[in-house]
Amino acid sequence: MQPTVDATTALERPTAPLLRRERDSAIDFGGLDPQYHPPMHYPTEVELYEPTLDTGSIQRRPNEQETATVSAEVPLPCGHFNIWRPLHDRRVPVAARLARFFTGSAALQSDGRVVAPASSTWDSRISYSSADDEYFENGHALPLIKGWEHGMLASRNIFRKIEHDWQMTYLAPSLGNADQQSLAVWRFNYAESRRAIERFHAVLGFSLFAETAGVEWCIRPLSKPCFRQIPIRILTAEETAYFPEIELGHDQHRPASGRSLDERARIIEQYRGQILAYRARGDDFNSYIVHSVPALAADLSAYVEGEYGFELAVSFLPATEGRDVWQKVQVARQSLRQLISGRLREGEDALAQCGLDFRIKLRDSIVVPPVAPALIQALTAQPPRLQMDDARCDFTIHVRDPENTVGSLQPPIRAHESVLRAGSEYFAALLESEMAEAASKHVELDAMPYGAVRLAIYFLYADEVPHVDAMDLSDWITLLSATSRLSIPRLHQLCQARILREVAYDPLDIERDPSYKDLVTYPDTEVAESLQAVADDSDAQDLVQALDRLIAYYPIAVCENRIRSRPAQEFSRSTAPPFFRDDPRDHPEAMLGGPPLGPFGHGIGDEADEWALMPGPVLHPEIIPDIRHARHIRREHPRNGFFARHLGNWLPFAPNGDADPPAPQPGPVPEAPRNTHRPVPQPESGSESDDGSAPGAA
C-alpha cells in the first residue's frame, strides 16, 4: 500500500476493521475496550501535581485542647488521558517536593514554585520518548507513565523493538502477526473542565522501509461515530530543500536562508491538516525509505476544534513482500542515545526529540472578552469617573415595556454619549447616523423589558451585574435578549456563560451502580433544546454550540466516571508489563525493583505471577552494572512466573529504606547468577558444618 494520501481524501475511512467500524452510541468503544494498567512505584512514575497542605496558626483556649487549622489546595484536573490518568493545566504549579529537580530550569520561579513559562502556548501536552519508554506531561522531563502500553487506551499486536546494532528503538507490529490488525489508540477528554479544544498539534513520527508498507493515522472526536484518516503528504525533492531538519543528498542544495524560512512556512500552511514526510536516500538494505519530518508538529485543529475530546489511532500496515515485513513500518523511531528523562534544565527543548508529542490548546466554552479600551477611556477621561444618571449625562433613553413590570415608576435612563458609543454597537451606529435620535440625544426603545435595559446600561459603567446571585435562568435569558438588541459584546457573552452554568449537570451526581455500558441521556434535553432556539433568536452561537457539546458529551462523561469508580480488575490486563514482554534482556533496569505489591496497593493480585514484582527507579544502562553489585542477593522458593523462567531461583533485592544488609548465614554460598560481572565473595573458613551442608538445609 502506498503511504501517500492525497489531500482530497482527508475524510477517507481507515482500512483497519476496528477503526473503520461505526460506533453504535457515544459510549461504544467499537471493540477497543479500555485497558487499565496499574501505576508503578515512585520514582518510576512521578505525580507532578499533588495536594498542598497549609497549616494555619495553632489556637488554645483555657481548659481545651490545642486546635490547628489546616487548608488543603487540591489541583483539579482539566481532563483525563485514557480515562484513568488525570491531566492538569500546565499553569498549575508542580508539587513543591519536586522543585529541587528543576534547579537551573526556566520553569523554577523566584518564589520556589515550578510553573510553565509565560511563553508556553499549550494548556496540555503529552510526549512519548521511545528511547526512555516513558510518557511526559506538560513539557517536564519527569516520567508520568512508564511503558508504551501503559500510556494507551488500547493496543493490538505491537511491541517496542530495540536495535542494539543500529542503536535505534521504535514501535512495530508484533513478529509473526503480519496478517492481524496492529494498532494503538490514545484518548483525551477535557469535558470535566468544560473547556473546548481550540488547537491541536501533534508530532506523529513514523518510518517506512518498503513501498508496500504503510501507516494510517486516524482521528475521531468523541462525539462522532467514525474515525477519519489523516492524510500523509510526501514532500517533493524541491520542497524538502526548505526544511533544515531534513538531511539532504549529495546532489541537493539548500536555497538562500532568507527565502528558505518563508517558503517553509508557506509549505506548512499549504498542507495544514496533513502529516508531512519525505523520501530519504536508500541504503544497502532498503531502497525505499520514507520518514516523517523530524519534530514537525502537524496542525490537526480542523478535526477536533470546538470538541471536548478525541481519540487518535495509528494502524500499522506491514509490507506484503520481502523479509521481516513487520519491521518495514515503524512508529516513534528514536535513537537510544537521545534520552529525555531527567533533562529538566533544557525545559521543553529536550522533548523536541520525542517521537510522539500531543499538544492541546484549550479555551472556555464561552469566552467573555475583556473590557474594551475605548470604554475605559470614555469612563475615565475626565475625573471623577462617569456614573449613570449623574448631572453630566447628555443622552436619554426611554423604554416602552409592554408588560410594564414596574408600573408607572419607569424613569428615563440617563447616560453619556461617549460611554454608549464605546460600549454598545447599537448606540454607536445610531449616533453615527443622521437620524433624528442622534441630533436630539434621545431614543425610545419599544417592546423591551425596562429592568433588563437598565441592567445593561449599568453594566457599561460598573462592569458587573448587581444582585447576580438572586437571578435565575429566566432572568439571564431576558437579559440576553435585551443585550442582543443593544449589541453589548461583553455582557452578551457573560449572559451565555451564566445560562450554560445554570443548565449544566455534573455527571458525578448520577448513580454509579449501573454498568458503564448503559447509555444515559442528558436529564433536561427538552430544556436544552428550547434554550438553543432562544439562543438562535439572540444570535448566541457560542451558547448553541456549547449546548450541543453538553448533550453529546454528557453520556460520555457518565460512562468514564462509572469506569473510574468500578474495580480496576475489570479492565486490567493479566499479562506482563510491556518492557518485560519485549525482551527482558533489553530491560535490566526493570529487574531492580522493590518487593511485590499487595492487592490493595495498585490493584495487583498476588496470584498474578507475571506481576509479582513491579519495576523500581528508572536507571539508564550505563549505570546498571554498578547498581547490580551494590544490591544484595536473596534466595526465593521456586516459582512458575517470569523471574523463575529467566533468573531461576534468584531475584535482585533492594533493602527497604536505610536498613542494614542481611547478616551472613553459616553454610556454603550458592553460585552467583550468570549475568553478574563481579564474583560473589566466598565465606570465611569455618562457616560450613562438618558434613559440608548449611544448617537446616533440607
Please state the average pLDDT score.
Answer: 78
The secondary-structure class comes to alpha+beta
Specify the oligomeric state.
Answer: single chain
Q: What percent of residues adopt helix (DSSP H or I)?
A: 10-25%
Strand proportion, as a percent range, falls in: 15-25%
According to DSSP, the number of beta strands is 27
Low-pLDDT runs: 1-11, 579-662, 675-680, 685-698
Distance between the termini: 63 Å
3D shape: globular
Rg is 32 Å
Number of helices: 16
Largest sheet: 7 strands, antiparallel
Write the layout of secondary structure elements.
Blueprint: H1 17-20, E1 52-59, E2 67-73, E3 79-81, E4 85-87, E5 124-129, E6 134-137, E7 143-146, E8 154-156, E9 158-163, E10 168-173, E11 182-189, E12 195-204, E13 206-208, E14 214-221, E15 228-230, E16 232-235, H2 237-240, H3 257-270, E17 275-280, E18 289-292, E19 298-299, H4 301-304, E20 309-317, E21 329-335, E22 356-364, H5 373-380, E23 395-400, E24 413-415, H6 417-423, H7 425-432, H8 436-440, E25 442-446, H9 450-462, H10 473-486, H11 489-503, H12 525-537, H13 541-565, H14 578-582, H15 624-630, E26 632-635, H16 642-647, E27 650-653
Parallel strand pairs: 16-17, 23-25
Antiparallel strand pairs: 1-2, 3-4, 3-11, 5-6, 5-22, 6-7, 8-11, 9-10, 10-21, 11-20, 12-19, 12-22, 13-18, 13-21, 14-15, 14-20, 17-18, 23-24, 26-27
Helix pairs in contact: 5-6, 6-7, 9-10, 10-11, 11-13, 12-13
